[in-house]
Every structure is written in structure tokens, then in C-alpha cells.
Amino acid sequence: MAGLSLKVSKLGRLGRFVQFARSYGVPRAGIYFMNTTFFDLRTGLNTARSMPSKVAGVPPDLLGDSVDYLPSWTVTIRKAFRVVKQTLGAQALGSTFVDVGAGKGKVCIVWAQELRRARIASGDLLAVDISEVLCGVASENLAKAGLTGKVRIVIEDAAQLSLDEHPQILLWLYNPFGAETLSKLLRETYGRVVGIVYSNPVAHETVVSAGYELIYQEEGWHPNLSFTIYVPRNLRNPHSSALLPLRH
């Protein structure tokens, strides 16, 4: 049975590669592979395979506002880290890092690795998701990555999430839910969020209307390579003498 499972897993990886190659071409399918499947092969983690919200056990009344799990790309997480360091500084990186819609925990894992590599002392790292199934996978991944106890998993609806105990928050979003839930989250946390990293930023207007200013925009050939960075409109970083220009 183990051999059969391995064959099915390999066929699934090949199928995803072929499907991507048909849409974007073989060279770009290689980039997709390196940032998803190869990451898992190299680390022994389980992050690359997508999971529909219904399979993940999202409550039926919330399915309409949820988004299926898809893995963030490693290169995007690492580049976003460098841009945050350059634009907002080490102080922002030392804030509580909260990935809302964390799925299988990949963003927190890579972010923790980047913090260690940059020798920056971090605040708490929180992986928030409404799905107990995905949080269970995230817990296993954190254990394999040696981050049990260093990243806290929170099973919670983002619309009900309370982060009052955290005075400074750096928020990560990967298009995890609809605009209504996003608006509630941003209203609840406003005044404590020092910056937002928004991967695949489909709800830009919602973020801006919540009182945030766009300071960086990265547009890639695939949505998973695109991200934006926002700061509260009245809290531009005084330590950053020259914010990076917007990239289009």
C-alpha cells in the first residue's frame, strides 16, 4: 500500500506540472515546480498540494466567503521579507507576524527561516486558519521544520479574530477570504498593524478603504508572484527615508 501511495503521489505531482505547463509553458512550469513541489521534496514537508475548502472542513455557512487552499511560492515569501526589511525596517520584522489563512503553515515556516538568516529577533509568529484539517497539517509541518512552540497555530474565523494582546502586528494575507471578512479583520486590528503583506492582492480597494496606503507593488507573470505592501495611512515609517518605488 505504501508503494501504491507513493506512485499516486508522483502521478499527482506530474499531473500538476503538466497542467501548469499547458497554461504557461514548460520553463515557467519549472519555476512553479521549484517553488511548490520541490520545496516539499527538499524539506520533507506537506504544503504543495491544494485543498478545496469543503474538503478542509470549512463550516458550510462560511464556504461562500472562503478560498480553497493553495500554496504560497517560496520565492515570493522570501522577496516580500526583503522588501519589508528595506521599506519598514527590522522593527516591523520584530513585530508579531500573523498569517491569516495560513493553510499548511508554509509562510510562517519560510518567514521564520528568513528571520533566523537575517539574525532578527522576532515577536510571536501566528498561523491562523479556520480549518482544523489544515491546522493539523500545519502542526505536522512545523514539527518537521523544528518550529513547534515557535509558531503558534490559531484555529479561528478571521472575522472573529482578536489580537488585542499584540500591540504591533505585521499581517500576511494570501487572498484567504472575501472582501467582507477582510474588511472586518482590518477594522478590528487597525491601530496595531504596522504593515500588511498581501500576496495575490485581489481586494486592493478593500485594504485602501480600511485606511491603508500602498507603498510597494510587485506584479509577476503569475498571481502567486504578485504582492503588495501597505502601511496605515497615518503611520508611515519614520525610519525609512526613501520607500521603494511602486513596480508595475
Q: What do these coordinates show?
A:
41% of the residues lie in helices and 16% in strands. It has 248 residues and is an alpha/beta fold. The protein folds into two domains: 2-65, no CATH class; 74-232, Rossmann fold, CATH 3.40.50. A seven-stranded mixed β-sheet has the order 3-2-1-4-5-7-6. Helix 1 packs across helix 2.
Taken together, the total number of domains comes to 2
The end-to-end distance, rounded to whole angstroms, is 49 Å
Total number of beta strands:
7
Main beta sheet: 7 strands, mixed
- pLDDT under 50 segments (min length 5)? 1-8, 238-248
Q: According to CATH, what is the class of the largest domain?
A: Alpha Beta
Strand order of the largest sheet: 3-2-1-4-5-7-6
Inertia-based shape: globular
Hey, roughly how much beta strand do the residues contain? 15-25%
Question: Percent range for helical residues?
Answer: 40-55%
Order of helices and strands: HHHHHEHEHEEHEHEE
Kindly name the structural category.
alpha/beta
Mean pLDDT score, rounded?
A: 89
The radius of gyration is 18 Å
- The name of the CATH superfamily of the largest domain reads Vaccinia Virus protein VP39
Stated plainly, the CATH topology of the largest domain is called Rossmann fold
Q: Would you identify the CATH architecture of the largest domain?
A: 3-Layer(aba) Sandwich
Number of helices: 9
